[in-house]
Amino acid sequence: MARKINIYANFDTTAVTDPEREYYNLPRNELPIFNQTTASTSIEILENSPVDKLVFSTTGIDGYGYNDTTFNFDNNYFKNQIIYFTVRVKTRNNYPAKYLNNLSLGNGSNIDTISIDLKDQNNNSLAATISSDFGILSSDTVGGFFKGAFQYDGSANNVKLTAKATVGLSGIPIDGESNTFNIVPVSDSKEFRKINENNNQKDNFINYLYQPNLRDNPKFFTDIIGQIVGDANNPNTLGVKVYEKISNFLLNSSDIEYANIDNLISNMKLIDSNVNKFSESYPASLKRIVDFFSVNRSKIIPIKNKFSQDFNDKGRADSGLGKNLGKEIKLSDTLSGGDNFKPIVAFEKFSQRYYMLNTDPTSGFDFRYLGTNKTYQISSYNINWGWGLVLPDGIGDFTYMLDISGNNLVLENGFRILNEDRGLDTNDISKYYTFFEYISTFNNSNIFAFYDDANVNSTSDVSSLSAINNSIDEIILKDIYSGTNLI
């Protein structure tokens, strides 16, 4: 049986302060309605509305008449963390079926029982421990919901909870599933290190030991002093924090792009800028995270050196220098032109300088080869190639022999016959230049890095803005859960 109900509402402003009356010290408004605005709506109440599905959330707030995903599972949880959840029975129109009995953990086939599984992305069941956790609601027998918790001793990506239940006097089978989430190990979860958060003060003290009796018996520095100052593995140790504050003093205090929140607020107050501060203090470990990720996301991504003409290894082949210089090219080697052309490198012997030659000779004016295959040899060098080599007059200054009709004289291999009256032997080029293959790669060192991606403890993905956001979620949750002993 359905009942239609009309609901009317309007504002009661007797408790609202009128600024104008306050200013003129007039008595408060005694009328219950002031500038009346009325609203109305109609609803239909159905007795024993047909149920349709099971809906997961972390709080039991999943929408009334619509699907609210605000309290879905977070993206990331941790191995062996106790994860609490609520499952509600809902109708086709997404209204909670509160007239039903609460569900108890079981096989899901018996009336008023629910079975819950944790499944991976391939829909395989995982060995999770699932328990009931009604808490203070244990005495409630009606409401059409189940409160529980689960733990998983492992790690997996894109997992979900699935449930099936049988409800109502007639035993209606329904099911549902949660959104997907990740369960990650605590030890291998995402971390970040700010630039200059790499100080190992315990090792520094040990490295200062020169007296044999202290150097051979450093227990005082490893077990006592070392435990006070800590090493580089934990960014919240005394040694790391003091070193970082000194090294990054200007960055933390004066640079508005990277300043800590407290210093940023202080700088804003210097210019009388309005500041809304929502928290006076954070725990030390959480404040470090907030200070770091309050920086503009694009500023967190390290600025890389895109220099791609590093040819000189300074005589140290294993130094990482000269990474764009390949193996030597002989004058007689056949190289590809056209669509397959690749730049080469010329080493100028008299100036000791390297030059990248990125002009395709086969596209140059008056090229010697007339065949269909776009290839060339440096031994066929012509000044019209556009390479700009500094050579004695005559090297590469060739013309081509013509017949009496002005047509090119061409050899069988497709090369035009040279008229060498003005040209010198192109093999003399080797006296002035050595040629190398070009390796296309970037220097890729950091020009500036707020996020220290060279630190072994920096495991967050900062390659994109979305990746940074995902890292923030995991890092903050880990800090909160660790600080509250939930993991």
Average residue pLDDT: 85
CA-CA gap between termini: 50 Å
Strand content range: 15-25%
- Count of helical regions: 10
Q: Give Rg in angstroms.
A: 38 Å
Poorly predicted residue ranges: none
Q: What is the general shape?
A: elongated
- What is the percent of helical residues? 10-25%
Q: Would you report the number of β strands?
A: 23
Major β-sheet annotation: 7 strands, mixed
Structural class: alpha+beta
Helix and strand arrangement:
Elements: E1 2-10, H1 19-23, E2 38-46, E3 51-57, E4 76-78, E5 83-91, E6 104-105, E7 113-119, E8 125-126, E9 128-132, E10 145-152, E11 156-167, E12 172-177, E13 181-184, H2 201-207, H3 212-215, H4 219-229, H5 238-247, H6 249-253, H7 261-270, H8 284-293, H9 297-300, E14 303-304, E15 325-329, E16 334-336, E17 344-348, E18 353-357, E19 375-377, E20 399-400, E21 418-419, E22 433-438, E23 446-448, H10 465-483
Parallel strand pairs: 4-13, 6-7
Antiparallel strand pairs: 1-2, 3-5, 5-10, 7-8, 7-11, 9-10, 11-12, 11-13, 14-23, 15-22, 16-19, 17-18, 17-22, 20-21
Helix pairs in contact: 2-4, 8-10
